[in-house]
Amino acid sequence: MANIGTRRRPDLRGNVAVQEIYALYAPELYRFALRQLGDDCAAEEVVQEVFLRMWRSADGFRPELASLRVWLFAIARNVVIDEVRARLRQDKRLDAARTAAAAGGGENSSDFADTTLNRRVVEVALLRISAEHRAALVETYLRGRSYRDVAAELRVPQATLRSRVFLGLKAMRLAMDQMGVQP
């Protein structure tokens, strides 16, 4: 793509353009996100979100104001900020649940705190596995959908989905072990 680095407006929605832009900038964006968040799975998600936002707001790119690289890093900065804010909100909810559990002292508040903690552990572990395995586990285990429906939605054979669920569970166990949690 001859005009990616120039001041002309590149076609940011074409398949070839997106592939070329991804090849040029994804590794650098990943390193930036990894430095900011310290989590490789979150960094990968940041890169995915950057390219999704780039594609969605391609008309907002103004090459006369900034290069494509600068624009992508501005998007990445915003995505990282969103991720940090989401983590802070989640941590505040977790702290509030702990405080409520400690103040209540009753069995119900303890159950609430345990449930909240378990959910957070599962969320963090899910972020540490691949997107394919995560989707398979979320749809089949957490949402209780049938393998047939999920396989059709993901456009994969049922056997492939079953393999993803099996391998996803193994990856979850490993992630939880790395987190120091017994599944």
Automatic annotation (TrEMBL):
The protein's UniProt keywords, in alphabetical order, are: Sigma factor, Transcription, Transcription regulation
Task: Name the source's superkingdom.
Answer: Bacteria
Domain named RNA polymerase sigma-70 region: which ranges?
Answer: 22-87
| Entry keyword annotation includes Transcription | yes
The keyword Transcription appears for this protein: yes
NCBIfam families, alphabetically? sigma70-ECF (TIGR02937)
- Protein family according to the UniProt entry: Belongs to the sigma-70 factor family. ECF subfamily.
Q: Any idea what this protein is called?
A: Sigma-70 family RNA polymerase sigma factor
User: What broad taxonomic lineage does this protein's source fall under?
Assistant: Bacteria, Bacillati, Actinomycetota, Actinomycetes, Pseudonocardiales
